[in-house]
Amino acid sequence: MTDASRADEADWLDEPDDEPAVQPFELGEVPSATSIRRFTAQAGNARGGASIGSLLGSVYYAGISIAISVGVALGAAQSMRASLPPAPEVDQPFSLSLATLVVVVVVALAGALLSLAGRLGPVGAGGAEAAWWLGLPVDRRGLLRPAARRLPLLAGFVGAVLVALLDAGLLADPGLRVARVAATSAVVAAGIVLLAAVGQSAGVSRRSTALAGDVLLFLAPVAAVVLAQAGWSVDGLPVPPWWFLAVLVPVLAALAVVVDRRLGRIPARTLRESGSVATQAVGAVVSMDSRELGRALTDGAAAPVRRWTSRLVTARGPASALVTADLVVLRRSGRHVVQLVVAALVPVLVSTVPELASPLGVLLSLLVAGYVAMSATGEGARRAEMAPILDRLLPIEARTVRRLRMVVPAAAMAVWSVVAFAAVGRWASDVPGWIALGLASTPVWAAAAVRASYRPAPNWAGALVSTPMGAVPTGVAAVLARGPDLVVLGLLPVWIAVLLRTVNPTLLYVQIVLSVIAVAIASSIKTGSLMERLLDAQEQEKAGSRR
Q: Helices 140-165 and 98-120, interaxial angle, to 10°?
């Protein structure tokens, strides 16, 4: 630094600091909420690097994928409907018509939608939106309108497609009736989400909305069993006429206006919580992580404070403490309890519908319902995989921990097996034998639940494969197969028994042996596949020979 510059710096320091650091300026008008939202979208698009061509290509790709999926599903449903036997002319004492079962499924879907809307908000603001938008001195309605429209539109589209597939595929209704059913389903599905949004703006907790949906989902199969016992059935899916549907549309529009006017009343805390749950759920779906998705939906509607605490009298040591922890997790999750009950009644309902009571239909109902029930029982193991606190603190070997994690799933699946296999036994005219086979297969379900809970995460650092849902790792199929592989291989005697419609001692003995093998496989702490283990062993042998 020269002498002249030092002198200038000294003169500048000696001058009095009379002028403010920030000069006066004119205040402009506060921008509107819509302009802020558009500015945020434009800034994100400018930094995203995507062009209009890539956007149109993605939209085209998604549209073609959805159309192909709907066409394949419709073709499969119609093929299944054509292969179903005709309904018997004489009504059986304990039976349901196929149309009644479709009505029950639609009611259950409505309950699931209400529960999902309650867990997701349905209106929320997550991430940077919640951090920047909610604190601005602008009308919050303009900021939240896209989030308030997103879920009702998606629910209406998915509801119309699903119910139309059920009506056209299973009931084989004509085209005009299917169109009317699809339009009614879209309006009702969007209305359910909008009602949940009105409740959210009125201060109704997300837990209460989710509980209402769970109750409706629980009552649907229970009511079906009662109707089957009473011998009452419907001939077709009830659908209102076009004039009534024209009346429902203005009602739906009025409900949307009510939601729009009440968006500003939703507390910022509720918006942040709903946005956080939705962001976590979307991330889990994109990354194909069913465990993270279950945690997001379960924790999103969990009670923040409990009015009573259990004494945990069953925790008398390390092993019993681990089992008690899994039992408490299952008992406190109402969604998983409802999932268990509904899954137990699915084989009962399928076996009472004459068109579906074939060996293939009963087998599919057992496998699908059993897997749904099995996933509900493994919540304790899934949480342990995410945060292995008890697994590390308790003085128990890792293999023993895996076996102890199977106790609660085994007990829950034993109850499920008694109900489900009793219905299969009634269908096959041998209730004791089928209950024995179901109890013998219980360890397979428990082992599959623990194996699926402790599966490793996909390796996103390796090679990726392009799919309609985005890029996925090459080994994601092998990762997702951990758990279902035990169900497929460990229940081979059940497959054979259902297809042959009989149970014999040989199948029972083979099932017991396969159950023991399944428990041994699920107790292993090695996460790699058999091929990966063989490759690692070869590499170790080569490294040892070089030394």
A: 160
Give the integer Cα–Cα distance in Å for 200 and 403: 43
Q: How many Å apart are CA 528 and CA 547, to the nearest integer?
A: 26
**Which residue in the block uniquely carries the two structure tokens 């360890």?**
443
The phi, psi pair for 22, rounded to 5°, reads: -105, 120
Residue 149 and residue 77: Cα distance in Å, rounded? 31
- In the three-class reduction of DSSP (H, G, I as helix; E, B as strand; rest coil), residue 472 is classed as strand
- 373-416 pLDDT tens trace: 999 898 888 888 888 888 888 888 888 889 999 999 999 999 99
User: How far is the C-alpha of 53 from the C-alpha of 46, rounded, in Å?
Assistant: 14
Of the candidates 186, 201, 76, the residue with the CA atom closest to the CA atom of residue 141: 201
Q: Tell me the three state secondary structure of residue 465.
A: strand
Helix (H) or strand (E) holding 240: none
The three-class DSSP label of residue 312 is coil
**Whole-number Å distance between alpha carbons of 120 and 110:** 15
Question: What distance in Å separates the CA atoms of residue 130 and residue 133, rounded to the nearest whole number?
Answer: 6
Encode pLDDT of 54-77 as tens digits.
777 777 777 887 788 877 877 777
CB 189 within 8 Å of CB 154: no
- Residue pair 217/115 in contact by the 8 Å Cβ criterion: yes
Q: What angle do CA 363, 364, 365 make, to 5 degrees?
A: 90
Tokens of 545: 């020979």
Helix axes 359-377, 492-500, angle to 10 degrees: 150
Expressed in angstroms, the distance from the first to the final Cα of the chain is 63
C-alpha span between 48 and 42 (Å, rounded): 10
Contact 329, 457 (CB under 8 A): no
> Which tokens go with 386?
């995410």
Cβ-contact 365, 101 below 8 angstroms: no
Whole-angstrom Cα distance, residue 284 to residue 383? 15
| CB 259 within 8 Å of CB 144 | no
Beta bridge partners of 472: 465
- Give 482-525 pLDDT, tens digit per residue: 888 888 889 999 999 999 999 999 999 999 999 999 999 888 87
